[in-house]
Specification:
There is one protein chain. By secondary structure, this protein is of the alpha+beta class. The chain folds into three domains: about 5-60 and about 170-330 and about 435-440, BirA Bifunctional Protein, domain 2 (2-Layer Sandwich); about 360-430, 2-Layer Sandwich (Signal recognition particle alu RNA binding heterodimer, srp9/1), CATH 3.30.720; about 465-575, Rossmann fold (3-Layer(aba) Sandwich). The strands form eight sheets. Strands 3-10-11-21-16-15-14-12-13 form a nine-stranded mixed sheet. The chain has a five-stranded mixed sheet with strand order 25-24-26-27-28, sandwiched between helices. A three-stranded antiparallel sheet has the order 4-9-8. Helix 16 (about 490-500) links the parallel strand 24 (about 480) and strand 25 (about 505-510). It is globular. It starts with a helix and ends in an 8-residue tail after the last helix. Bound molecules: glycyl-adenosine-5'-phosphate.
Protein backbone atom coordinates (compact mmCIF):
# COMPACT_ATOMS: atom_id res chain seq x y z
CA UNK A 1 0.00 0.00 0.00
CA UNK A 2 1.37 3.44 -0.87
CA UNK A 3 1.60 6.39 1.49
CA UNK A 4 -1.76 7.80 0.41
CA UNK A 5 -3.56 4.46 0.88
CA UNK A 6 -2.03 3.88 4.31
CA UNK A 7 -2.87 7.44 5.44
CA UNK A 8 -6.44 7.02 4.27
CA UNK A 9 -6.98 3.69 6.04
CA UNK A 10 -5.52 5.05 9.26
CA UNK A 11 -7.68 8.18 9.22
CA UNK A 12 -10.76 6.19 8.18
CA UNK A 13 -10.42 3.83 11.12
CA UNK A 14 -9.35 6.35 13.76
CA UNK A 15 -12.03 8.90 12.90
CA UNK A 16 -14.88 6.49 12.16
CA UNK A 17 -15.23 6.71 8.38
CA UNK A 18 -14.93 2.98 7.66
CA UNK A 19 -13.30 -0.13 9.04
CA UNK A 20 -13.16 -3.86 8.38
CA UNK A 21 -16.34 -5.69 9.30
CA UNK A 22 -16.28 -8.15 12.22
CA UNK A 23 -12.64 -7.51 13.10
CA UNK A 24 -13.36 -9.20 16.46
CA UNK A 25 -13.55 -12.46 14.50
CA UNK A 26 -10.56 -11.71 12.31
CA UNK A 27 -12.51 -9.69 9.76
CA UNK A 28 -13.61 -10.88 6.37
CA UNK A 29 -12.04 -9.67 3.16
CA UNK A 30 -14.16 -7.41 1.01
CA UNK A 31 -16.60 -6.25 3.70
CA UNK A 32 -16.43 -2.83 5.35
CA UNK A 33 -18.62 -1.09 7.89
CA UNK A 34 -19.12 2.65 7.59
CA UNK A 35 -18.65 4.32 10.97
CA UNK A 36 -20.60 7.37 12.16
CA UNK A 37 -18.65 9.85 10.00
CA UNK A 38 -18.53 7.57 6.97
CA UNK A 39 -22.20 6.63 7.03
CA UNK A 40 -23.19 10.31 7.03
CA UNK A 41 -20.63 11.18 4.36
CA UNK A 42 -22.04 8.36 2.20
CA UNK A 43 -25.62 9.51 2.86
CA UNK A 44 -24.64 13.03 1.78
CA UNK A 45 -23.05 11.77 -1.47
CA UNK A 46 -26.24 9.81 -2.15
CA UNK A 47 -28.41 12.86 -1.40
CA UNK A 48 -26.34 14.98 -3.80
CA UNK A 49 -26.69 12.25 -6.44
CA UNK A 50 -30.46 12.04 -5.92
CA UNK A 51 -30.70 15.82 -6.19
CA UNK A 52 -28.80 15.94 -9.49
CA UNK A 53 -29.72 12.71 -11.27
CA UNK A 54 -33.29 12.12 -10.04
CA UNK A 55 -34.93 15.33 -8.84
CA UNK A 56 -33.40 17.79 -11.28
CA UNK A 57 -33.65 15.42 -14.24
CA UNK A 58 -37.28 14.61 -13.38
CA UNK A 59 -36.75 10.84 -13.11
CA UNK A 60 -38.51 8.27 -10.91
CA UNK A 61 -36.87 6.32 -8.10
CA UNK A 62 -37.57 2.75 -6.97
CA UNK A 63 -36.31 0.40 -4.29
CA UNK A 64 -36.21 -3.33 -5.08
CA UNK A 65 -35.08 -6.33 -2.97
CA UNK A 66 -31.44 -7.35 -2.69
CA UNK A 67 -32.33 -11.01 -3.41
CA UNK A 68 -33.96 -12.00 -6.69
CA UNK A 69 -35.03 -15.39 -8.05
CA UNK A 70 -32.72 -17.30 -10.36
CA UNK A 71 -34.94 -16.70 -13.40
CA UNK A 72 -34.08 -12.98 -13.33
CA UNK A 73 -30.35 -13.64 -13.63
CA UNK A 74 -30.81 -16.44 -16.12
CA UNK A 75 -32.57 -13.93 -18.36
CA UNK A 76 -30.11 -11.08 -17.69
CA UNK A 77 -27.13 -13.25 -18.64
CA UNK A 78 -25.45 -12.95 -15.23
CA UNK A 79 -25.69 -16.70 -14.55
CA UNK A 80 -23.76 -17.50 -17.69
CA UNK A 81 -21.62 -14.45 -18.30
CA UNK A 82 -20.80 -12.67 -15.04
CA UNK A 83 -17.44 -14.33 -14.51
CA UNK A 84 -13.88 -13.35 -13.64
CA UNK A 85 -10.76 -15.43 -14.24
CA UNK A 86 -9.50 -17.32 -11.23
CA UNK A 87 -6.15 -18.96 -10.56
CA UNK A 88 -5.38 -20.69 -7.25
CA UNK A 89 -1.92 -20.99 -5.74
CA UNK A 90 -0.93 -24.68 -5.38
CA UNK A 91 1.23 -23.85 -2.35
CA UNK A 92 -0.65 -21.43 -0.08
CA UNK A 93 -4.14 -21.79 -1.60
CA UNK A 94 -4.59 -18.03 -2.18
CA UNK A 95 -7.02 -17.17 -5.01
CA UNK A 96 -6.09 -14.49 -7.53
CA UNK A 97 -7.69 -12.65 -10.45
CA UNK A 98 -5.64 -14.23 -13.24
CA UNK A 99 -6.18 -11.30 -15.63
CA UNK A 100 -5.00 -8.80 -13.00
CA UNK A 101 -1.81 -10.80 -12.38
CA UNK A 102 -1.08 -10.67 -16.11
CA UNK A 103 -1.87 -6.95 -16.38
CA UNK A 104 0.35 -6.16 -13.38
CA UNK A 105 3.30 -8.21 -14.67
CA UNK A 106 3.20 -7.50 -18.42
CA UNK A 107 2.30 -4.66 -20.75
CA UNK A 108 -1.03 -6.35 -21.65
CA UNK A 109 -3.71 -3.75 -20.85
CA UNK A 110 -6.92 -5.75 -21.22
CA UNK A 111 -6.27 -9.36 -20.22
CA UNK A 112 -9.95 -9.46 -19.15
CA UNK A 113 -10.91 -9.70 -22.81
CA UNK A 114 -8.70 -12.78 -23.42
CA UNK A 115 -9.65 -16.44 -23.03
CA UNK A 116 -8.68 -18.21 -19.78
CA UNK A 117 -6.36 -20.40 -21.81
CA UNK A 118 -4.52 -17.39 -23.28
CA UNK A 119 -4.20 -15.84 -19.81
CA UNK A 120 -2.83 -19.16 -18.49
CA UNK A 121 -0.24 -19.17 -21.26
CA UNK A 122 0.86 -15.62 -20.38
CA UNK A 123 1.22 -16.60 -16.71
CA UNK A 124 3.58 -19.41 -17.75
CA UNK A 125 5.43 -17.33 -20.36
CA UNK A 126 6.14 -14.50 -17.90
CA UNK A 127 6.91 -16.77 -14.92
CA UNK A 128 4.24 -15.06 -12.84
CA UNK A 129 4.33 -16.10 -9.20
CA UNK A 130 1.74 -16.08 -6.40
CA UNK A 131 1.82 -12.57 -4.85
CA UNK A 132 1.13 -14.11 -1.43
CA UNK A 133 3.90 -16.77 -1.22
CA UNK A 134 6.03 -16.39 -4.35
CA UNK A 135 5.44 -19.89 -5.75
CA UNK A 136 5.26 -20.09 -9.58
CA UNK A 137 1.74 -20.27 -10.98
CA UNK A 138 2.77 -21.67 -14.41
CA UNK A 139 0.60 -24.63 -15.39
CA UNK A 140 -2.12 -23.91 -12.82
CA UNK A 141 -5.62 -23.96 -14.35
CA UNK A 142 -7.23 -20.59 -15.05
CA UNK A 143 -10.99 -20.92 -14.62
CA UNK A 144 -14.10 -18.79 -15.05
CA UNK A 145 -15.58 -17.95 -11.63
CA UNK A 146 -19.14 -16.62 -11.36
CA UNK A 147 -19.24 -13.58 -9.09
CA UNK A 148 -22.81 -13.90 -7.84
CA UNK A 149 -23.59 -14.95 -4.27
CA UNK A 150 -26.11 -17.79 -4.38
CA UNK A 151 -28.72 -18.41 -1.71
CA UNK A 152 -31.96 -20.35 -1.29
CA UNK A 153 -35.32 -18.69 -0.93
CA UNK A 154 -37.58 -20.31 1.68
CA UNK A 155 -36.92 -23.19 4.08
CA UNK A 156 -35.43 -26.54 3.14
CA UNK A 157 -33.85 -26.64 -0.25
CA UNK A 158 -36.16 -23.74 -1.26
CA UNK A 159 -35.69 -22.27 -4.68
CA UNK A 160 -32.46 -20.76 -5.93
CA UNK A 161 -31.97 -17.05 -5.52
CA UNK A 162 -29.04 -14.65 -5.88
CA UNK A 163 -27.94 -11.45 -4.23
CA UNK A 164 -28.16 -8.89 -6.99
CA UNK A 165 -24.80 -8.11 -8.61
CA UNK A 166 -26.22 -4.79 -9.89
CA UNK A 167 -29.29 -2.83 -8.78
CA UNK A 168 -30.21 -2.37 -12.46
CA UNK A 169 -31.99 -5.75 -12.81
CA UNK A 170 -34.48 -4.68 -10.12
CA UNK A 171 -35.50 -1.93 -12.53
CA UNK A 172 -35.43 -3.89 -15.81
CA UNK A 173 -37.52 -6.78 -14.52
CA UNK A 174 -40.29 -4.36 -13.44
CA UNK A 175 -40.30 -2.45 -16.73
CA UNK A 176 -43.94 -3.29 -17.67
CA UNK A 177 -45.27 -1.64 -14.46
CA UNK A 178 -42.79 1.23 -14.61
CA UNK A 179 -43.76 2.01 -18.22
CA UNK A 180 -47.37 2.21 -17.09
CA UNK A 181 -46.47 4.68 -14.31
CA UNK A 182 -44.70 6.73 -17.00
CA UNK A 183 -47.96 6.52 -19.02
CA UNK A 184 -46.03 4.73 -21.78
CA UNK A 185 -44.34 8.00 -22.71
CA UNK A 186 -40.70 7.76 -23.70
CA UNK A 187 -38.18 8.90 -22.68
CA UNK A 188 -38.31 8.27 -18.94
CA UNK A 189 -35.67 7.44 -16.35
CA UNK A 190 -35.79 5.17 -13.33
CA UNK A 191 -33.15 5.40 -10.61
CA UNK A 192 -32.24 3.22 -7.69
CA UNK A 193 -29.74 3.60 -4.85
CA UNK A 194 -29.04 0.31 -3.12
CA UNK A 195 -26.59 -2.42 -2.30
CA UNK A 196 -25.08 -4.84 -4.80
CA UNK A 197 -23.03 -7.93 -4.04
CA UNK A 198 -20.17 -9.57 -5.91
CA UNK A 199 -18.06 -12.42 -4.65
CA UNK A 200 -14.86 -10.74 -5.85
CA UNK A 201 -11.88 -13.10 -6.19
CA UNK A 202 -9.42 -10.67 -4.67
CA UNK A 203 -10.95 -7.70 -2.85
CA UNK A 204 -8.45 -4.87 -2.46
CA UNK A 205 -7.70 -1.25 -1.68
CA UNK A 206 -10.15 -0.35 1.05
CA UNK A 207 -13.54 0.48 -0.41
CA UNK A 208 -12.37 0.12 -4.02
CA UNK A 209 -12.98 -3.58 -4.63
CA UNK A 210 -15.33 -5.01 -2.04
CA UNK A 211 -17.96 -7.75 -1.96
CA UNK A 212 -20.88 -5.63 -0.75
CA UNK A 213 -21.18 -2.06 -2.04
CA UNK A 214 -23.75 0.61 -2.82
CA UNK A 215 -24.63 1.59 -6.35
CA UNK A 216 -26.56 4.63 -7.53
CA UNK A 217 -27.90 3.66 -10.93
CA UNK A 218 -30.04 5.40 -13.48
CA UNK A 219 -31.73 3.50 -16.32
CA UNK A 220 -32.90 6.01 -18.91
CA UNK A 221 -35.34 4.42 -21.38
CA UNK A 222 -35.36 6.18 -24.75
CA UNK A 223 -36.89 5.70 -28.18
CA UNK A 224 -33.76 5.02 -30.28
CA UNK A 225 -35.42 6.42 -33.42
CA UNK A 226 -36.79 9.65 -32.04
CA UNK A 227 -35.57 10.79 -28.63
CA UNK A 228 -32.69 13.23 -28.34
CA UNK A 229 -31.06 14.60 -25.20
CA UNK A 230 -31.15 18.34 -24.36
CA UNK A 231 -27.49 18.74 -25.33
CA UNK A 232 -27.71 22.53 -25.29
CA UNK A 233 -27.84 22.42 -21.47
CA UNK A 234 -24.35 20.87 -21.25
CA UNK A 235 -22.75 21.64 -24.64
CA UNK A 236 -20.06 23.86 -23.10
CA UNK A 237 -18.99 21.51 -20.33
CA UNK A 238 -15.39 20.37 -20.83
CA UNK A 239 -14.72 16.62 -20.68
CA UNK A 240 -11.28 14.99 -20.22
CA UNK A 241 -11.70 12.13 -22.71
CA UNK A 242 -9.40 9.13 -23.09
CA UNK A 243 -10.89 7.32 -26.08
CA UNK A 244 -10.35 3.66 -26.97
CA UNK A 245 -8.51 4.84 -30.07
CA UNK A 246 -6.14 7.00 -28.00
CA UNK A 247 -5.47 4.08 -25.65
CA UNK A 248 -4.71 1.74 -28.55
CA UNK A 249 -2.46 4.16 -30.42
CA UNK A 250 -0.48 5.80 -27.64
CA UNK A 251 -2.68 8.89 -27.56
CA UNK A 252 -3.49 11.08 -24.58
CA UNK A 253 -6.49 12.43 -22.72
CA UNK A 254 -8.13 15.21 -24.80
CA UNK A 255 -10.09 18.08 -23.30
CA UNK A 256 -13.17 18.56 -25.47
CA UNK A 257 -16.48 20.23 -24.77
CA UNK A 258 -19.57 18.03 -24.98
CA UNK A 259 -20.45 19.82 -28.23
CA UNK A 260 -17.01 19.15 -29.74
CA UNK A 261 -16.98 15.51 -28.57
CA UNK A 262 -20.24 14.89 -30.40
CA UNK A 263 -19.24 16.82 -33.50
CA UNK A 264 -15.92 14.97 -33.82
CA UNK A 265 -17.60 11.63 -33.10
CA UNK A 266 -15.32 10.95 -30.11
CA UNK A 267 -18.41 10.14 -28.04
CA UNK A 268 -20.67 8.35 -30.49
CA UNK A 269 -23.87 8.32 -28.44
CA UNK A 270 -25.44 11.73 -27.74
CA UNK A 271 -27.17 10.47 -24.58
CA UNK A 272 -23.85 9.29 -23.12
CA UNK A 273 -22.32 12.67 -24.03
CA UNK A 274 -25.24 14.38 -22.29
CA UNK A 275 -24.75 12.43 -19.06
CA UNK A 276 -20.98 13.02 -19.10
CA UNK A 277 -21.86 16.72 -19.31
CA UNK A 278 -24.31 16.47 -16.41
CA UNK A 279 -21.92 14.41 -14.26
CA UNK A 280 -18.73 16.46 -14.66
CA UNK A 281 -19.77 19.47 -12.53
CA UNK A 282 -21.41 17.05 -10.10
CA UNK A 283 -18.10 15.27 -9.38
CA UNK A 284 -16.57 18.66 -8.64
CA UNK A 285 -19.54 19.54 -6.42
CA UNK A 286 -18.92 16.51 -4.16
CA UNK A 287 -15.18 17.19 -3.83
CA UNK A 288 -13.46 15.19 -6.59
CA UNK A 289 -10.18 16.83 -7.66
CA UNK A 290 -10.74 17.34 -11.40
CA UNK A 291 -6.97 17.28 -12.00
CA UNK A 292 -7.13 13.61 -10.95
CA UNK A 293 -10.13 12.70 -13.07
CA UNK A 294 -10.79 11.42 -16.62
CA UNK A 295 -13.34 9.60 -18.77
CA UNK A 296 -11.91 6.43 -20.29
CA UNK A 297 -13.70 4.56 -23.03
CA UNK A 298 -13.84 0.77 -22.74
CA UNK A 299 -11.70 -1.19 -25.17
CA UNK A 300 -13.81 -3.53 -27.34
CA UNK A 301 -12.90 -6.69 -25.39
CA UNK A 302 -13.55 -5.00 -22.06
CA UNK A 303 -17.27 -4.38 -22.58
CA UNK A 304 -19.72 -6.14 -20.23
CA UNK A 305 -21.96 -8.78 -21.83
CA UNK A 306 -24.85 -6.29 -22.06
CA UNK A 307 -23.01 -3.15 -23.19
CA UNK A 308 -22.68 -1.73 -26.69
CA UNK A 309 -20.38 1.15 -25.63
CA UNK A 310 -19.14 2.38 -22.27
CA UNK A 311 -17.17 5.29 -20.83
CA UNK A 312 -15.88 5.06 -17.28
CA UNK A 313 -15.39 8.05 -15.02
CA UNK A 314 -12.02 7.32 -13.41
CA UNK A 315 -10.40 8.98 -10.43
CA UNK A 316 -6.74 8.74 -9.49
CA UNK A 317 -6.08 7.52 -5.96
CA UNK A 318 -2.93 6.04 -4.60
CA UNK A 319 -1.28 6.10 -8.03
CA UNK A 320 -4.05 3.97 -9.62
CA UNK A 321 -7.02 4.91 -11.77
CA UNK A 322 -10.26 3.74 -10.16
CA UNK A 323 -13.48 3.24 -12.10
CA UNK A 324 -16.00 5.32 -10.15
CA UNK A 325 -18.86 5.28 -12.68
CA UNK A 326 -19.74 3.42 -15.86
CA UNK A 327 -21.76 5.26 -18.51
CA UNK A 328 -23.04 2.45 -20.74
CA UNK A 329 -25.37 2.05 -23.69
CA UNK A 330 -27.19 -1.21 -23.00
CA UNK A 331 -29.39 -0.86 -26.13
CA UNK A 332 -32.46 -3.15 -25.74
CA UNK A 333 -30.40 -6.08 -24.42
CA UNK A 334 -32.06 -6.40 -21.00
CA UNK A 335 -35.64 -5.69 -22.02
CA UNK A 336 -35.40 -8.13 -24.95
CA UNK A 337 -34.00 -10.84 -22.68
CA UNK A 338 -36.68 -10.39 -20.01
CA UNK A 339 -39.38 -10.39 -22.73
CA UNK A 340 -37.97 -13.60 -24.22
CA UNK A 341 -37.61 -15.42 -20.89
CA UNK A 342 -40.82 -14.27 -19.18
CA UNK A 343 -43.14 -14.14 -22.21
CA UNK A 344 -44.33 -10.70 -20.99
CA UNK A 345 -44.46 -7.51 -23.01
CA UNK A 346 -41.33 -5.38 -22.41
CA UNK A 347 -42.17 -2.64 -24.87
CA UNK A 348 -44.20 0.56 -24.86
CA UNK A 349 -47.11 1.21 -27.17
CA UNK A 350 -46.45 4.39 -29.08
CA UNK A 351 -49.71 5.96 -30.25
CA UNK A 352 -49.62 7.68 -33.67
CA UNK A 353 -51.09 11.19 -33.96
CA UNK A 354 -53.52 9.77 -36.53
CA UNK A 355 -54.27 6.09 -37.29
CA UNK A 356 -52.50 4.95 -40.44
CA UNK A 357 -53.31 2.30 -43.05
CA UNK A 358 -50.55 -0.29 -43.50
CA UNK A 359 -50.15 -3.36 -45.66
CA UNK A 360 -49.50 -6.54 -43.75
CA UNK A 361 -48.47 -9.92 -45.20
CA UNK A 362 -50.72 -12.82 -44.15
CA UNK A 363 -50.43 -16.58 -44.52
CA UNK A 364 -53.32 -19.07 -44.42
CA UNK A 365 -51.73 -22.45 -45.32
CA UNK A 366 -53.80 -25.12 -47.02
CA UNK A 367 -53.52 -27.93 -44.45
CA UNK A 368 -55.01 -30.45 -46.90
CA UNK A 369 -51.70 -30.04 -48.81
CA UNK A 370 -49.32 -29.58 -45.82
CA UNK A 371 -50.85 -32.46 -43.79
CA UNK A 372 -50.17 -35.33 -46.22
CA UNK A 373 -46.83 -33.79 -47.27
CA UNK A 374 -45.26 -33.11 -43.81
CA UNK A 375 -47.28 -35.32 -41.45
CA UNK A 376 -46.66 -34.46 -37.76
CA UNK A 377 -44.49 -31.45 -38.70
CA UNK A 378 -47.28 -29.76 -40.71
CA UNK A 379 -48.35 -27.43 -37.84
CA UNK A 380 -44.76 -26.26 -37.27
CA UNK A 381 -44.25 -25.73 -41.01
CA UNK A 382 -47.41 -23.53 -41.03
CA UNK A 383 -46.04 -21.50 -38.07
CA UNK A 384 -42.67 -21.15 -39.79
CA UNK A 385 -44.43 -19.84 -42.93
CA UNK A 386 -46.29 -17.22 -40.85
CA UNK A 387 -43.15 -15.90 -39.20
CA UNK A 388 -41.26 -15.92 -42.52
CA UNK A 389 -44.07 -13.84 -44.09
CA UNK A 390 -43.67 -11.25 -41.30
CA UNK A 391 -39.90 -11.17 -41.59
CA UNK A 392 -39.41 -11.45 -45.32
CA UNK A 393 -42.56 -11.24 -47.48
CA UNK A 394 -40.36 -11.21 -50.61
CA UNK A 395 -39.57 -14.89 -49.98
CA UNK A 396 -43.07 -15.64 -51.31
CA UNK A 397 -42.38 -14.02 -54.71
CA UNK A 398 -41.49 -17.27 -56.56
CA UNK A 399 -43.26 -20.58 -57.18
CA UNK A 400 -42.00 -22.23 -53.99
CA UNK A 401 -40.92 -21.18 -50.55
CA UNK A 402 -38.59 -23.02 -48.15
CA UNK A 403 -38.69 -22.95 -44.33
CA UNK A 404 -36.61 -24.77 -41.75
CA UNK A 405 -38.12 -26.79 -38.92
CA UNK A 406 -35.77 -28.58 -36.51
CA UNK A 407 -32.86 -28.24 -38.92
CA UNK A 408 -34.85 -29.80 -41.78
CA UNK A 409 -35.72 -27.73 -44.85
CA UNK A 410 -39.32 -28.01 -46.05
CA UNK A 411 -40.34 -26.67 -49.48
CA UNK A 412 -43.95 -25.63 -50.04
CA UNK A 413 -45.64 -24.45 -53.26
CA UNK A 414 -46.50 -20.76 -52.71
CA UNK A 415 -50.11 -21.32 -53.81
CA UNK A 416 -50.53 -23.73 -50.85
CA UNK A 417 -49.34 -21.10 -48.33
CA UNK A 418 -52.37 -18.83 -48.78
CA UNK A 419 -49.94 -15.88 -48.86
CA UNK A 420 -51.58 -12.49 -49.35
CA UNK A 421 -51.30 -8.80 -48.37
CA UNK A 422 -54.09 -7.21 -46.38
CA UNK A 423 -54.61 -3.59 -45.50
CA UNK A 424 -55.10 -2.83 -41.83
CA UNK A 425 -55.49 0.36 -39.82
CA UNK A 426 -52.97 0.82 -37.01
CA UNK A 427 -53.26 3.34 -34.18
CA UNK A 428 -49.66 2.95 -33.00
CA UNK A 429 -46.75 0.56 -32.68
CA UNK A 430 -44.80 -1.31 -30.04
CA UNK A 431 -41.36 0.15 -29.41
CA UNK A 432 -38.68 -1.55 -27.34
CA UNK A 433 -36.75 1.26 -25.65
CA UNK A 434 -32.98 1.47 -25.57
CA UNK A 435 -31.29 2.01 -22.24
CA UNK A 436 -28.66 4.58 -21.30
CA UNK A 437 -27.13 3.72 -17.95
CA UNK A 438 -24.99 5.92 -15.71
CA UNK A 439 -23.98 3.55 -12.88
CA UNK A 440 -22.15 5.06 -9.90
CA UNK A 441 -20.27 3.17 -7.17
CA UNK A 442 -20.96 5.18 -4.01
CA UNK A 443 -18.15 3.62 -1.94
CA UNK A 444 -15.56 4.40 -4.60
CA UNK A 445 -16.75 8.00 -4.65
CA UNK A 446 -16.54 8.23 -0.86
CA UNK A 447 -13.00 6.78 -1.03
CA UNK A 448 -12.03 9.23 -3.78
CA UNK A 449 -13.44 12.24 -1.98
CA UNK A 450 -11.61 11.32 1.25
CA UNK A 451 -8.36 10.98 -0.70
CA UNK A 452 -8.80 14.10 -2.81
CA UNK A 453 -9.92 16.35 0.06
CA UNK A 454 -7.07 15.36 2.37
CA UNK A 455 -4.95 18.48 3.01
CA UNK A 456 -2.14 19.54 5.28
CA UNK A 457 -0.90 23.05 6.11
CA UNK A 458 0.77 25.01 8.91
CA UNK A 459 -1.32 26.80 11.53
CA UNK A 460 0.61 28.88 14.06
CA UNK A 461 3.73 26.93 13.12
CA UNK A 462 2.10 23.51 13.69
CA UNK A 463 1.26 21.06 10.94
CA UNK A 464 -2.47 20.59 10.58
CA UNK A 465 -4.39 17.85 8.74
CA UNK A 466 -7.86 18.62 7.46
CA UNK A 467 -10.44 17.32 5.02
CA UNK A 468 -11.49 20.11 2.66
CA UNK A 469 -14.89 18.48 2.09
CA UNK A 470 -17.53 20.65 0.41
CA UNK A 471 -19.90 21.78 3.20
CA UNK A 472 -22.82 19.98 1.50
CA UNK A 473 -20.99 16.65 1.79
CA UNK A 474 -19.26 17.04 5.17
CA UNK A 475 -20.72 14.66 7.80
CA UNK A 476 -20.91 17.47 10.35
CA UNK A 477 -21.68 21.05 9.31
CA UNK A 478 -20.82 22.80 12.54
CA UNK A 479 -18.92 22.09 15.74
CA UNK A 480 -20.19 23.93 18.82
CA UNK A 481 -17.79 24.57 21.70
CA UNK A 482 -18.02 26.43 24.98
CA UNK A 483 -14.69 28.17 25.59
CA UNK A 484 -14.82 26.60 29.08
CA UNK A 485 -17.40 24.45 30.74
CA UNK A 486 -18.07 26.90 33.59
CA UNK A 487 -19.69 30.27 34.40
CA UNK A 488 -22.77 29.37 32.34
CA UNK A 489 -20.82 29.04 29.05
CA UNK A 490 -21.68 25.32 28.78
CA UNK A 491 -25.41 25.97 29.20
CA UNK A 492 -25.33 28.78 26.63
CA UNK A 493 -23.43 26.57 24.16
CA UNK A 494 -25.98 23.78 24.69
CA UNK A 495 -28.75 26.29 23.81
CA UNK A 496 -26.92 27.20 20.60
CA UNK A 497 -26.42 23.50 19.80
CA UNK A 498 -30.15 22.79 20.27
CA UNK A 499 -31.15 25.72 18.05
CA UNK A 500 -28.81 24.63 15.28
CA UNK A 501 -30.04 21.02 15.44
CA UNK A 502 -33.66 22.22 15.35
CA UNK A 503 -32.78 24.07 12.13
CA UNK A 504 -31.72 20.78 10.55
CA UNK A 505 -27.97 21.28 10.80
CA UNK A 506 -25.58 18.40 11.58
CA UNK A 507 -23.88 19.48 14.81
CA UNK A 508 -21.06 18.08 16.97
CA UNK A 509 -20.80 19.38 20.54
CA UNK A 510 -17.36 19.25 22.12
CA UNK A 511 -16.28 20.65 25.49
CA UNK A 512 -13.22 18.53 26.16
CA UNK A 513 -9.63 19.75 25.96
CA UNK A 514 -8.04 22.95 24.71
CA UNK A 515 -10.00 24.86 22.06
CA UNK A 516 -7.17 24.39 19.53
CA UNK A 517 -7.40 20.60 19.89
CA UNK A 518 -11.17 20.74 19.41
CA UNK A 519 -10.68 22.67 16.16
CA UNK A 520 -8.16 20.05 14.98
CA UNK A 521 -10.58 17.20 15.73
CA UNK A 522 -13.28 18.83 13.58
CA UNK A 523 -10.74 19.75 10.87
CA UNK A 524 -9.74 16.09 10.58
CA UNK A 525 -13.30 14.97 9.85
CA UNK A 526 -13.94 17.89 7.51
CA UNK A 527 -16.38 19.99 9.58
CA UNK A 528 -16.46 23.28 7.64
CA UNK A 529 -17.50 25.63 10.50
CA UNK A 530 -17.04 25.84 14.25
CA UNK A 531 -18.93 28.08 16.66
CA UNK A 532 -17.37 29.06 19.97
CA UNK A 533 -19.35 30.46 22.88
CA UNK A 534 -17.14 32.69 25.10
CA UNK A 535 -17.49 35.31 27.83
CA UNK A 536 -18.44 38.04 25.31
CA UNK A 537 -21.37 35.84 24.24
CA UNK A 538 -22.96 36.31 27.66
CA UNK A 539 -22.92 40.11 27.16
CA UNK A 540 -23.42 40.76 23.48
CA UNK A 541 -25.14 37.54 22.28
CA UNK A 542 -22.55 36.92 19.58
CA UNK A 543 -20.36 33.89 18.92
CA UNK A 544 -17.15 33.24 17.03
CA UNK A 545 -17.62 31.40 13.73
CA UNK A 546 -14.45 29.84 12.39
CA UNK A 547 -13.87 28.70 8.80
CA UNK A 548 -12.07 25.34 8.43
CA UNK A 549 -10.02 26.03 5.29
CA UNK A 550 -8.78 29.58 6.01
CA UNK A 551 -9.04 29.26 9.83
CA UNK A 552 -10.40 32.85 9.74
CA UNK A 553 -12.82 33.78 12.51
CA UNK A 554 -15.72 36.24 12.58
CA UNK A 555 -18.05 37.49 15.24
CA UNK A 556 -21.69 36.69 14.40
CA UNK A 557 -24.97 37.40 16.24
CA UNK A 558 -26.67 34.32 17.70
CA UNK A 559 -29.94 35.64 16.35
CA UNK A 560 -30.10 34.40 12.78
CA UNK A 561 -27.13 32.06 13.28
CA UNK A 562 -28.99 28.92 12.04
CA UNK A 563 -29.97 30.69 8.80
CA UNK A 564 -26.43 32.03 8.31
CA UNK A 565 -24.90 28.58 8.76
CA UNK A 566 -27.45 27.01 6.42
CA UNK A 567 -26.59 29.60 3.76
CA UNK A 568 -22.87 28.86 4.23
CA UNK A 569 -23.54 25.11 3.92
CA UNK A 570 -25.71 25.50 0.83
CA UNK A 571 -23.21 27.78 -0.91
CA UNK A 572 -25.60 30.77 -0.87
CA UNK A 573 -23.16 32.76 1.25
CA UNK A 574 -19.34 32.81 1.25
CA UNK A 575 -17.51 32.95 4.58
CA UNK A 576 -15.55 35.98 3.34
CA UNK A 577 -18.86 37.85 2.85
CA UNK A 578 -20.09 37.21 6.38
N1 LIG B 1 -25.28 -1.81 -13.82
C1 LIG B 1 -23.99 -1.64 -14.38
C2 LIG B 1 -22.91 -2.06 -13.50
O1 LIG B 1 -23.12 -2.65 -12.46
P1 LIG B 1 -20.32 -1.97 -13.23
O2 LIG B 1 -19.31 -1.18 -14.00
O3 LIG B 1 -20.08 -3.42 -13.06
O4 LIG B 1 -21.70 -1.70 -13.97
C3 LIG B 1 -20.90 0.04 -11.68
O5 LIG B 1 -20.52 -1.31 -11.81
C4 LIG B 1 -20.09 0.71 -10.61
O6 LIG B 1 -20.19 -0.02 -9.39
C5 LIG B 1 -18.60 0.77 -10.92
O7 LIG B 1 -18.29 1.88 -11.73
C6 LIG B 1 -17.99 0.88 -9.54
O8 LIG B 1 -17.98 2.22 -9.11
C7 LIG B 1 -18.97 0.10 -8.68
N2 LIG B 1 -18.42 -1.25 -8.39
C8 LIG B 1 -18.44 -2.33 -9.19
N3 LIG B 1 -17.85 -3.38 -8.59
C9 LIG B 1 -17.44 -2.95 -7.37
C10 LIG B 1 -16.75 -3.57 -6.26
N4 LIG B 1 -16.41 -4.86 -6.28
N5 LIG B 1 -16.48 -2.81 -5.18
C11 LIG B 1 -16.85 -1.51 -5.13
N6 LIG B 1 -17.50 -0.88 -6.13
C12 LIG B 1 -17.79 -1.60 -7.25
Amino acid sequence: MTEEGARLSELAKRRGFFFRTAAAYGGVAGFYTYGPQGATLKDNVEAAWRDRFVTREGHMEVSSPDVMPEAVFEASGHLDGFDDMLVDCPECGASHRADHLVEDATDVADAESMSPQAVGELIAEHDIACPACGVALAGEPVEEFNLMFETTIGPGSGSAGYLRPETAQGIFVEFPQLAEYARNQLPFGVAQIGDAYRNEISPRKGLVRVRAFTQAELEHFVDPEEDEPPIERVADVTLPLYSAQAQQHGGEVRELTVGEAIEEGVVANDWIAYYLGVATPWYERIGVDMDRFRYRQHLPGELAHYAADCWDAETEVDGDWIEATGFATRADYDLAKHAEHSGEDYSVFKQYDEPIAVERPTVDPDMSVLGPEFGGAAGEVADALRSLAERDPDAFDGQEVTVEVDDTAHTVPVEATGFGIEEVTESGEHVRPHVIEPSFGVGRLVYTVLAHCYETDLVDGDERTYLALPPEIAPTTVGVFPLMDKDGLGERARDVERELRAAGLAVAYDDSGAIGRRYRRQDEVGTPFCVTVDYDTLDDHTVTVRDRDSTDQKRVAIEGLPGTLRSLRDGDLAFADL
